[in-house]
Amino acid sequence: MRRYEAIAVLSVGLATIGGALQAQTPTLYKRLGGYDALAAVTDDFLGRLAGDSIESRFFAGVSKDSQQRIRQLVVDQLCAATGGPCVYIGRSMKTAHAGLGITSADWDRSVRLLSATLAKFNVPAAEQTEVLAAIASLKGDIVEKP
């Protein structure tokens, strides 16, 4: 066997092993329960935000149609971010939240509300940590004021 053939065989073998290992580790999307679970979490979380005495100001004047669009975009973004089959087609977080004046305190409050939602649905601690880490990566694009 020539050297390049041996390398090709080794590469195929490693790719097969890597694929098998990847197949054994379910995505966060699957570990969270899939689309319906993410939709339920989104509904609860958005309800908490809209019903919160401080965070509700971000939903003032938002029509029912716009609320449904926001809800669907959040579901799609969570689905895509956790390894699910969805595609997020919304605007960037920076564009979508520009001008809202979201503060670090608002951010921290929304994270607490999301944590309460995840706890309500008995999301295991490891998965909660992964979800919150994914969300944390968006903070710089959402928060406008310290």
What does this structure look like?
By secondary structure, the chain is mainly α. The protein has helices at 3-24, 28-32, 35-51, 64-81, 93-97, 104-120, 125-136, 139-142. The chain has one domain (27-142): Orthogonal Bundle (Globin-like), CATH 1.10.490.10. 68% of the residues lie in helices and 0% in strands.
Summarize the structure.
The protein is mostly helical and 146 residues long.
User: What best-fitting shape do the alpha-carbon axes yield?
Assistant: globular
Helix and strand succession? HHHHHHHH
The termini sit apart by 63 Å
Domain count: the total is 1
The average pLDDT score comes to 89
- CATH architecture, by name, is Orthogonal Bundle
Question: What would the CATH topology be?
Answer: Globin-like
Largest sheet: none
Percent of sequence in beta strands: under 5%
If you compute it from the alpha carbons, what radius of gyration comes out, rounded to the nearest whole angstrom? Answer: 20 Å
Layout of SSEs?
Layout: H1 3-24, H2 28-32, H3 35-51, H4 64-81, H5 93-97, H6 104-120, H7 125-136, H8 139-142
Helix pairs in contact: 3-4, 3-6
